[in-house]
Amino acid sequence: MASKYVVLESASLKYGLKENTNQTKKMFSTMKKATSKLTNAIKSGELQGKTYESANDYFMNVLSPLVKNGERIITDVYGDINMYELEESKISHYGNIDVDALKKKIQSKQKLKREAEKYVDFAEKHKKLLTFLNPLSSASAEYSAKAIIYKMDKDIPRIEEEIDAFNKFEFNTSRMFSDSLKALHALENVLDALKDTKISSDGTINLPKNIYKLVDKLNCTGLNINSKYQSILSELLSYDSEGLVAHLNYFAISKYLMYLAAGDLSKTEEKALLTALEQIFGNYVKLHGFTKEVNDICVILSILQVRVGLGNRFLGFAYDKKRKCFYTTQHSLQSRFGFTGFYDKVDPLLGMDLNTDQIDFTYNGKQYRFQVWKGSYGDGLLGGGEQGLYVFDPKNKNQVTEKNIYKKLGMKDWLPVASKNDRIHMTNTLYNKTTGKEIMKTSDTNKNLNGEKAYWNLANKTAPGYTKENIYAEGTLDIKDKKLRTIIYTQLKNKTKNGKRVFSNVYIKKDGSVHYIWGK
Predict the structure, then answer these.
(1) DSSP letter assigned to residue 420
(2) Which of 1, 153, 459, 490 is disulfide-compatible with 443, CB 3.0–4.6 A?
(3) What DSSP character marks residue 159?
(4) What is the pTM (predicted TM-score) of this model?
(5) What is the DSSP string of 428-485?
(6) Which tens digit of pLDDT belongs to each residue from 76-133?
(7) 78 within 8 A of 243, measured Cβ to Cβ
């Protein structure tokens, strides 16, 4: 089992796989065109006698199974590549990972912690003697030992988290390409062999001697990789030459969503559906036109969230039965793709009608954006609001690569979600602008996430009739870094639009959190 993840090696692997698959697809497409011509010739009756028999044999025993298996094989390889990238996105923010080195680092830190604990224990037992001998040195040494223990208690879980993330990645990807690449190789062998096909002067087709064995092998390999998961994924999506989503089967996806809501999907079926949704929303900006089908799928999801609480596994929402509202987890689709102003432009296509405002600034070499939204969701079925914190670190190679990709797509303002070290505690309370009454109780990320810090805080509930005009929001941002807190406070206080302040009642509370009201 591998114990290392190297960013450059992974990038090289993906590039090689895509290039190889793209080349095979081109060869396959050329062969399909030739097949189409031959099929027309056979059907038209222009071939007679030995010529017809030869062509029909070629079509039935070589080309037909080749076309049938080839489409599926290429789709499966693209599916594996997309799945690999999806799994990789869960660990890429760590950079290069060497598990053996990390385990040694843990052992070293555990040893250091034990030694510090021994000293603290010794110091407490002999406090009077040590204080008598050298009070300053004794207090300083004990303080240093306790600081080491505190630091090790922070460092060790972080390293263990990194190791755990790698182990999950390795488990989920270790056999990912084994079957699909065997099948791709078998397809390449058949396509290469067909280059030696010759047509005699009498019009009969002379095939390479080993072609039937190669086709038999292709059939067997194709059957092996036709797993239920890949079969379902192929039913839901198809890919273009770059391995991006080119088409989605709206009827199949909506059918599986309904089955999921009814509890009638197996784990394999659910996994394939989740992959399809993640890939749709993950690169919908690259789809061939933002299709009506994507909008319809979003509406179905919104309706199912309201009726059966569906959403936690797919969109990063969880449902609070007591408050009868939805709140955010930090493992949503949004967490994988950052944010760009383009997404606000397509909100109406996603069944949302929202107002939004933001502040942008740079601090400590990082680019920050804090943004708020309020209005209606799910084609008017839900009312609510959001807070989002986005932070771009130019020292983070993965973020730089992603930002360059979005720039090429024309989205220069793209920013990734705040990484774990930059996340904060947020609260968001939404009010009826007319009556001043709460629409729902405060969404508190500390309570929602058991103390875990957040980059995003959404709160909405089934509340038809609420719009972006009749909702206002009250929020707090608990920021430990005093300089950063002051900057955000100043930015919120001074933000203006059309000569008017955007945020009101902005102040720093006694607990150190920044308070604001927006849209009142």
Answers:
(1) G
(2) 459
(3) H
(4) 0.47
(5) EEEEETTT--EEEEEEEHHHHTTT--BSEEEEEEE-TT--TTSEEEEEEEE-S-HHHH
(6) 788 788 778 878 888 888 999 999 999 999 999 999 999 888 888 887 777 666 555 5
(7) yes
